[in-house]
Design brief:
The protein folds into 2 domains: 93 residues, Glutaredoxin; 149 residues, Glutathione S-transferase Yfyf (Class Pi), Chain A, domain 2. 53% of the residues lie in helices and 6% in strands. Bound molecules: glutathione (GSH).
Length: 277
């Protein structure tokens, strides 16, 4: 059943389920403090990368809407995710999920040897993954929010179409990489290897399996390969380790689904037709 009444639920402030176990296993301060919020898909991107690349980190949950001083110190707009890099004297910081992902990839290439990209010796294969990332950031992510925030039925239908087209566009880019690249192309192939694009898109694809069905009656477009890809993604150990239980997402996204005023900087940007923060 599609949920239609705004019951006034608020976002959660602490992880549940697998994500809680993972957060508890990373509760000791160390070189990297990872500022995050349990419901946030931009945070989940960085978290999956930390897990997959095997980089040490300490989870520090904050409320990004309250903008505590310690968050503003590491992220100028007070957005999560952010990293505090404690091995510098004085500590330095990084924000922006896409920049953090590239940073973690670079850190891992000098330490854990794990990678989200094909080898540097195959620049074309790396570029194909980055084309996917570009599509995800400019099309898939904004269309998710436009769909979830749309209130009138005709607008919802139009936005559902747009979101489905963005998913199909991603599938086409996956297929192209598979055809044109000799290197590993990520989870679309079924070797269990995550790519930068899998991590970039994963949190919204996951929310398209719980939040969108609940609030918009959404179903993923049919296609055996897309279904199998999504199943592999949500079951991947590095992804699963960052997932809370479904209710946390349903509660946390009710404000978006009813387009409550001032839900977030992302929601305001969507409502005013601006680019995402
Ligand atoms: N472009 C940023 C977006 C991050 C973002 O919007 N995070 C949300 C939580 S999901 C946030 O911190 N919102 C606080 C606010 O809207 O003031 C990134 O990719 O890291």
């Amino acid at each position: 059943m599609v949920s239609s009444n705004d019951s006034g639920k608020s976002y959660h402030l602490a992880c549940t389920g697998d994500a809680l176990d993972t957060a508890n296993a990373h509760s000791t301060p160390g070189d990297i403090t990872f500022f995050g919020s349990c419901f946030c898909p931009f945070v989940q991107r960085a978290w999956v990368a930390l897990e997959y690349l095997g980089i040490d980190y300490h989870v520090y949950e904050v409320d990004p809407y309250k903008k505590p001083a310690e968050l503003l110190e590491v992220s100028p707009k007070g957005l999560v995710p952010a990293l505090k890099l404690n091995h510098y004297n004085a500590p330095r910081a990084l924000n922006e999920s896409t920049v953090i992902l590239e940073f973690l990839e670079d850190v891992a290439s000098g330490s854990t040897q794990k990678s989200l990209l094909p080898p540097v010796s195959d620049p074309y294969a790396r570029a194909l993954i980055r084309l996917q990332c570009d599509h995800i950031n400019r099309t898939l992510v904004p269309s998710f929010y436009r769909y979830l925030q749309a209130q009138e039925l005709d607008k919802q239908v139009e936005c559902a179409k747009e979101f489905v087209e963005s998913l199909i566009g991603l599938v086409k880019l996956f297929e192209r990489a598979e055809k044109e690249s000799e290197s590993n192309v990520g989870l679309w192939g079924d070797g269990g290897v995550l790519s930068l694009a899998d991590v970039m898109a994963g949190p919204w694809i996951f929310r398209a399996t719980n939040v969108l069905p609940h609030y918009r009656g959404f179903a993923l477009p049919s296609g055996e390969r897309l279904g199998a890809y999504v199943a592999r993604l949500v079951a991947h150990p590095a992804f699963k380790a960052t997932c809370s239980t479904e209710q946390l997402y349903l509660d946390s996204y009710e404000r978006y689904a009813h387009n409550r005023p001032n839900t977030s900087q992302v929601a305001n940007a969507i409502n005013s037709g601006r680019g995402l923060p």
